[in-house]
Amino acid sequence: AEKLSSMKDTDWNDFLQRVCSLLDSTEKNTGAARSKLNLLYYLCTVAVHKEVASRLISSQLFPILIQQLRAAATWDIRAKVARVIGLLALHTSELGENVPVSEAIMLLTELIRENFRNSKLKQCLLPALGELLYLIASKEQKREHPRECWVVPSAAYTVLMRCLREG
């Protein structure tokens, strides 16, 4: 993480480009899925560094993570993508207005609702949803951004409360 945070812009862009192309790969063989999973494990490791998390969440990687959450072939990959999103939300120190946080919240809410009876999936998706909601709330409390910046659908709160009520 220290090496990533000290990278010059050109090296950072090259790194980000490689990460995004690997995640965005449409290969469906076992090796490609394993590589994608290993990359997500790596991202979980470096996402705990505040500077790296801030750079990653504000980059083109975040929309690709959302896309992977929506379309990944296996739930292993989706669960790990949700973990990366949650860790980025937890450890970021800056959040730009252009980061599609609302889209991530809507997608997580939809996935939880569709898979409500699957407690293992809920345990993977709920932490990411909670971290994103907390991130938005903390930024709004500090008055860093106006309330209209990130829309949180009422369904997100409904699903969250229902999950808490039902254990």
TrEMBL record:
GO terms for molecular function: kinase activity. It comes from Caloenas nicobarica. The gene is Ulk4_0. This is ULK4 kinase. InterPro entries: ARM-like, ARM-type_fold, ULK4. Keywords: Kinase, Transferase. The keyword DNA damage does not apply. PANTHER family: SER/THR PROTEIN KINASE ULK4 (PTHR46240), SERINE_THREONINE-PROTEIN KINASE ULK4 (PTHR46240:SF1).
